[in-house]
Structures are given as C-alpha cells and as structure tokens.
C-alpha cells in the first residue's frame, strides 16, 4: 500500500463535509429571505451577501433560483418510483404507495407537503414556484410510469403504466394540494395529519376497482 495515499480518504471527507455545510448555509439564508421578501423580490446577489459567499458560489450549488427554494425536488420526483420499485413481493403498487403515503402523513414529512405555513405561503404567492411545483408533479408521474413499466415488464410507452401512473400520481397531487390548503388555512401539522389520516384512505379506495391487482408479482 502506498502510504502517500492514506490521508486522501479523510481529506475527501472533510471537503465533502465543507461542501454540504456551504450548500446548507446558502439554502437556509435563501429560504429565510424568500419568506421575508417573497421569492420574486429576492435576488441571487442578496442571497450571496447574506451567506457571505460569492454570487458564483451560489449558482455553482444551485444553478436555478428555483433550486434554492425547492432543494428537495429530486427526492420529491423520485419518491413514488422508489416506493414502487422497492415494494414487497405481496404488495401491489397501489398498496405500497398507500402505505408509504400514510407513513409520511404520520411522520408529517415535509416532502409530502408538511412544510409549515410560512414556506407553503411563499410557494403559493410565487407564480414561478407554483409553476415549478406543477412541473415537479409531472416529472414525478413520468418517473412513476417508468418504474411501473420496469417492474411489470411493460414498455414505458404502453398505455397501461402511463394510465396507472396518471391515476396514482393524481391522487398524490390531490392529497399534496389538500395539505397545502389546510396549511394556508392556519391548521398546525398535527391537525393536518389527523385530517389526512382520515381522508387519504378514502382517496386511495377510489382507485381500488381499477388497480387492486395491477402490478402484483406472480408467485414463484
């Protein structure tokens, strides 16, 4: 073993830790300014000044201004597809997604919509972020289509996975919007979770006639 190489791993770890720290610092200052001033009225230069970094540093970490406000968008887009891909042998996509959503409600997961009134209002008051959120829902449905096609051995351009993804994605979109509505009405997260724990099963039940057996894996 080359002894000159041994410090590389810890050094890399420190560099990565510093990058994550800088990224989080920028994100925190951006969120604060967006909430205080509004997304449309906050500039990248103001965020850089608040975080005490160069403007170029901000754009290196967040290429688009929207990325600063919605910095968990990759997780959001992938969530449904990941759940379907990792589902148990006896689970259909419908049951897997139903269980995952109810677990997210119980945990009051921000990615599921439990982002708090200030953050939710920031998005609702911004035409740019509202449009971006619609695009994220569309991308999430596209990712779900691919996952359904892959796990059922169906071509991704086939009508069946596309339709199933539209139905499943549509329910999640409705429930996400419901959480936003209750948040903007001033209800605290625990109360919203209580409401969604009652309403979400009713929403998923509407899909049961069509999707109860769709995607069930054949037993060996």
From TrEMBL:
Residues 43-62 bind DNA. SUPFAM superfamilies: Homeodomain-like (SSF46689). Pfam families: TetR_C_14, TetR_N. Residues 20-80 form the HTH tetR-type domain. It comes from the Bacteria. Keywords: DNA-binding, Transcription, Transcription regulation. The keyword Flavoprotein does not apply. InterPro entries: Homeodomain-like_sf, HTH-type_TetR-like_transc_reg, HTH_TetR, MftR_C. The keyword Transcription regulation applies. This is TetR/AcrR family transcriptional regulator. It comes from Streptomyces salinarius.
